[in-house]
Amino acid sequence: MPAAAVSQASPPSAVTYTIGELAREFDLTTRAIRFYEDCGLITPQRSGRNRVYTARDRTRLKLTLRGKRLGLTLAEVKELVDMYESPRDTQPQLKKFLVVLAAHRAQLEQQMADLDATLDEVRAHEKEARRLLAEGERRKAG
């Protein structure tokens, strides 16, 4: 057995989780967890027909959800999580993470600028509508 496979195999006494336990812990549906499995983000072992999730799977799921909260794509999350499990040199992972975060920040800043412009336009329309209403009220009263 290759060394990498040995390091990823769980000792028999290791804590394991069922799909239901992970779903409750992370407030997910079991379908969502199976989707992450289909994407290769987690790889549970099998015990008959049951999925058996290890601490490694739990950590990968936690990191996946954290990446999603940051707005990363599942492909970006998978790349970063896979790098997380690479040898101890974290420099490539951190550099890639910074690149991904910078791109995401730029996208969010653009969205914020777009929202600010839209809000300015809405405010201008509200101001004009109020002016026209006031003008109409003055004509009625006059």
Task: List descriptors.
3-stranded antiparallel beta sheet, about 140 residues, elongated, disordered N terminus, 3 strands, mainly alpha
Description:
The protein has helices spanning 3-8, 19-26, 30-38, 55-69, 74-84, 91-141, and strands spanning 16-17, 45-47, 50-54. By secondary structure, the protein is mostly helical. A 3-stranded antiparallel sheet has the order 1-3-2. Helix 4 (55-69) crosses helix 5 and helix 5 runs antiparallel to helix 6 (91-141). It starts with a helix and ends with a helix.
Number of helices: 6
Average pLDDT, rounded to a whole number, is 87
Q: Radius of gyration in whole Å, from Cα? A: 25 Å
- Describe the sheet with the most strands: 3 strands, antiparallel
Instruction: Indicate the percent of residues in helices.
Output: over 70%
Give a summary of the structure in a few sentences.
The protein is mainly α and 142 residues long.
List the helices and strands and how they pair.
Elements: H1 3-8, E1 16-17, H2 19-26, H3 30-38, E2 45-47, E3 50-54, H4 55-69, H5 74-84, H6 91-141
Antiparallel strand pairs: 1-3, 2-3
